[in-house]
What we know:
A: globular; B: alpha+beta; four-stranded mixed β-sheet
Amino acid sequence: MGVRLEKPWRELTAANVAALAAELGVYQLADADGRIVRIGYAGGRTLFGLRSELEAALRAGEAAKFRTEVTAQYLSRYEELLMVHAADNGVLPPGNAADARRRTGRLSPG
Amino acid sequence: MDFEPTEEQALIVDQVRRFVREEIWPLEAKLDPDASRVEPEDHARLVAKTRAMGLYGLGIPPEFGGPDVDIVTQTLIAIETSQHRAGLYSPCFGAFGGAGLAQLYEANDDQKQRYLFPMLRGEKRGFFGLTEPSGGSDPARAIRTKAVRDGDDWVINGSKIFISGADGADFGIVFARTDAEKGRGGITCFIVDGDTPGFHVRRVVHTLRSGHYGTELQFEDARVPHANVLGEVNRGFAIANDRLTRQRIPYAAGCLGVAVRAQEMSIDYAKQRETFGAMLSTRQAIQWMVVDNEIDIRTARWAILAAACKAARGEPFRTEAAMAKLLASEGASRVVDRAIQIHGGYGVTKDFPLERWYREMRIRRIGEGPSEVQRIVMARDLFDQALY
């Protein structure tokens, strides 16, 4: 597993979301140009894991693209992706602004 | 020897137990099952309650503003505060505060002003950087991170691994070799600021714990002023070792608390669950599991309190602390395993805390010195030998 989530983007469509397994894991949402707009996770209380989370994002019209990673370590991986994004871009994704108040850590992944 | 709590201890334990059940359990029911922290406003509300109870800052010496609570009572409290889903590694989500980096109580006045007091006020956070990729059980030999004196500074190069909280810390206590010829007598402890050029948090180390992670650190010509040497040059191992011994009692108490709660859940479940026309509680196989749980729990409790009592009397307690840590971490692992077996399929779901405790309890047999090291510590004392 790399530090960054580098899988290819998929279109955020009902068909693509319906094909997702009900697994725990992390995901990234991006606009049409591939700029990450939010990082999230599907935790132990989600009804159908990643599928439920992406269905909600689709309904909200949050993004044009998405990518996922199935992992049982969804919380620590989520924190890692936030820190890597902040290291690469200087700020958190706009959809994660609320995370800044609980002081996301710093990472120098090199 | 009588390990029954005094009337005052019983009152405090009852107060803490109600706090866990009335404040922590309902809050936790709304969190992710792997969550290790609560929202800042919830944390502030919990801290206000523990302050009102006069129990905030357990572990902080009274002269530094902590409550005047002896180590035996602190141990009894620690057995209670871990009795919830996140309790093993985040007891009551930090609502009782804590000593933080206890090594800083030995710091000089300047260091106390710059690091200890801000840490106690909650303005600064620190990390403890001891373990390296070359090994953690034998830090005296495994430490390869080097510090070389250069004028008024020390220049540090090397790496650390499994370090909790370094990514969000303002400073850290870092152990480095300052004399290659002297083994444990060649290690020095440094206070390293988080924004020191050349200090990097390179990656998150994912473990069985999802809500909590370690980090890997790298030092590349990180320059630290001599004023940030904690204690004396080449005397850092004693600082690390003292911390490891003291930490074993609350570490063991946390394991015991989880075992106690797993046992309560098992008994409750066995009284409700029916198989083949009778309650599980009437089945000998289940009864024996519950009895074996109780034996593990009581054995660990006696060992932990024996260690705490010796520490309270000011007597050497290294062997007792090692025995308590070993018995509690291994016994609690068995208790949680049996509790899962009693709960059947539900035991491994995230609907119950057992699966989380099962994963996290596995780490407890390694963290703060694995079981094998505890045996080495005890054997050394029994044979009156120096550590090899």
